[in-house]
Specification:
249 residues, alpha+beta, Creatine Amidinohydrolase, three-stranded antiparallel sheet, 4 helices, 15 strands, globular
Length: 249
């Protein structure tokens, strides 16, 4: 299966989908506080996505039972919202929103601090954001994905953190997930060569401890194998000749 290259009209529709997803994420982020449940987050995402004329891409995807992923503390990704799971002071929680609008998808996430968090929690959140931005800074026509991953990995390693290797980013457009797979580690000079018009997500999952993960019995929730904290930030970008355009900024 080839990697789609998007032209002008398709890129504009990606912009609108990305803008909607980013707005929903911001709307939810402003409401996060100790005591709310992750099921509340799911309800807010459904409501706000509909208000913007979109649908939640994640709902029903390969059987996923919710409209958003909510990943707390040691949960790396794909956390399922639950009424019984309530945010507590000191938690960190990643909220991953994907919106389908006018036939295209925008995918974005951020990790939020709930109240006063530990120095370690604040550190891994800061490093994850910087890792995402370091990867985006490398994206441009002709660059290989290994170069993007190496830039991410270097930031994490310098800060005493690790990058998850079992999960990565992906191509996006008319399909929520497609080629290429975007690994957030090197080595440089390897992997798919990026071409102007490709749409991909940059979404490194950064652990305070080791990079190994394990899948829980629900078949979705991924946690750090050593129980350490994990944080993630994500943007959808479209590759250009001299860099990239962030669709979800």
């Amino acid at each position: 299966m080839g990697i789609p290259l998007l032209g002008g009209p398709a890129v504009e529709r990606m912009r609108q989908a990305g803008k909607a997803a980013a707005a929903t994420l911001a709307h939810v982020g402003e409401r996060l506080a100790a005591g709310i449940s992750t099921a509340d987050i799911d309800r807010w995402v459904r409501e706000d996505t509909a208000r913007r004329g979109g649908t939640p891409s994640q709902l029903g995807f390969h059987g996923f039972p919710a409209a958003v992923c909510t990943s707390r503390n040691e949960v790396v990704c794909h956390g399922i919202p639950r009424a019984a799971e309530r945010l507590r002071p000191g938690d960190i929680v990643n909220v991953d929103v994907t919106t389908r609008l006018d036939g295209f998808h925008g995918d974005t996430s951020a990790t939020f601090c709930i109240g006063d968090v530990s120095a370690d929690a604040r550190h891994v959140v800061d490093v994850a954001r910087r890792c995402r931005d370091a990867g985006i800074a490398v994206v441009r026509h002709g660059v290989r994905l290994g170069d993007v991953g190496a830039a991410i990995e270097e930031v994490a390693r310098a800060e005493g953190c690790s990058v998850v290797r079992d999960y990565g980013g992906h191509g996006i457009g008319k399909a929520m997930h497609g080629p290429p797979t975007v690994m957030h580690v090197g080595p440089r000079g390897q992997g798919v060569r990026l071409t102007a018009g490709m749409a991909i997500t940059i979404e490194p999952m950064v652990n305070l401890g080791r990079p190994e993960v394990r899948l829980l019995a629900d078949g979705w929730t991924v946690v750090t194998a050593d129980g350490s904290l994990s944080a993630q930030f994500e943007h959808t970008v479209v590759v250009t000749r001299d860099g990239c355009e962030v669709m979800t900024g």
